[in-house]
């Protein structure tokens, strides 16, 4: 009796399939795939002639190490990430036309071909410059042209790591250092130009002030200032000796 119950339990469990969130299932009966995809939930089937195939429709990250050609004929070692997902309603046709190993049989070959075609039109140094995002976008577009109508969504292609040949890498570094030094010198020159301009303005201001002052010192004003100076000296409580020609006072402080 226990054996019979065990067999019934095994058969029952084997005839149920659970599809989780982010997954899609397709029922295969007598070797033929149904055209309808199955969403999250529990499904029963006859384990003797049917099976439920499952795959994820969430974003997948496929990392690839690849040797890429450059326009000048160099070979660049690279590490690239491909972010992709598949359309839910296209899962049955993907399983039927490509198979369960669609990543190996479809995505990788298309990516390798697209990456080589794109990078062969760019210089090696471009992969380390602002052209990097352009290269990524062109590879993505090439992959979409081939895989998009088949149900694959290429979300992004990322050049994570680029290893340039040693001599080229050193040349790029020297160029960057030269550009940084040039920028630094430009900053210094600009600072000196601003300082020179400031000094020029300051000198012009001093000159103008002296001109205004000299133009305003007439004979009458000088005599008035002398009288005011005598008056202040006369009102001062301090003892002092004044020698003057009647025009300009000259003070001699007495010794204590």
Provide structural commentary.
It contains six helices and ten strands. The chain is of the alpha+beta class. It has three domains: 2-56, no CATH class; 60-169, Tetrahydropterin Synthase, Chain A (2-Layer Sandwich); 219-252, no CATH class. The strands form four sheets. A three-stranded antiparallel β-sheet has the order 3-2-5, with helices on one face. It has a three-stranded antiparallel β-sheet with strand order 6-7-8. Strands 1-4 form a two-stranded antiparallel ribbon. Helix 3 crosses helix 4. Residues 5-13 and 250-256 have low confidence and may be disordered.
Number of domains: 3
Oligomerization: single chain
**Helicity, in percent?**
40-55%
Q: Give Rg in angstroms.
A: 44 Å
- Topology as a string of helices (H) and strands (E): HEEEEEEEHHHEHHEE
What is the CATH class of the largest domain? Alpha Beta
> What overall form do the CA principal axes indicate?
elongated
Tally of helical runs: 6
**Shape-level CATH architecture of the largest domain:** 2-Layer Sandwich
Biggest beta sheet summary: 3 strands, antiparallel
Q: Report mean pLDDT, rounded to a whole number.
A: 79
What low-confidence regions span 5 or more consecutive residues with pLDDT below 50?
Answer: 5-13, 250-256
- Helix/strand/pairing category: alpha+beta
The CATH superfamily of the largest domain is Band 7 domain
Gap from first CA to last CA: 135 Å
Taken as a percent bin, the fraction of beta residues is 25-35%
Q: Which strands sit side by side, in order, in the main sheet? A: 3-2-5
């Amino acid at each position: 009796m226990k054996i019979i119950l065990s067999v019934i339990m095994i058969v029952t469990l084997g005839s149920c399939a659970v599809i989780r969130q982010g997954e899609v299932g397709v029922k295969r009966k007598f070797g033929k795939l149904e055209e309808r995809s199955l969403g999250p939930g529990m499904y029963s089937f006859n384990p003797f002639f049917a099976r439920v195939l499952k795959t994820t429709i969430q974003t997948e990250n496929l990392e690839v190490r690849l040797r890429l050609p450059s326009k000048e004929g160099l070979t660049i070692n690279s590490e690239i990430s491909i972010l992709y997902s598949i359309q839910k309603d296209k899962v049955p046709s993907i399983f039927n036309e490509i198979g369960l190993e669609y990543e190996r049989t479809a995505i990788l070959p298309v990516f390798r071909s697209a990456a080589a075609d794109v990078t062969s039109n760019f210089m090696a140094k471009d992969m380390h410059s602002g052209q990097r995002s352009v290269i990524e976008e062109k590879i993505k577009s090439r992959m979409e042209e081939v895989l998009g109508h088949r149900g694959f969504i290429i979300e992004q292609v990322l050049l994570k790591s680029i290893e340039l040949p040693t001599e080229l890498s050193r040349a790029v570094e020297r160029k960057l250092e030269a550009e940084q030094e040039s920028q630094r010198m430009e900053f210094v020159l600009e600072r000196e130009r601003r300082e020179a301009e400031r000094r020029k303005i300051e000198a012009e201001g001093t000159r103008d002030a002296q001109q205004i002052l000299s133009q305003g010192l007439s004979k009458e004003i000088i005599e008035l200032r002398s009288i005011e100076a005598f008056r202040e000296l006369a009102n001062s409580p301090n003892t002092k000796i004044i020698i003057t020609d009647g025009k300009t006072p000259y003070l001699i402080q007495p010794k204590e």
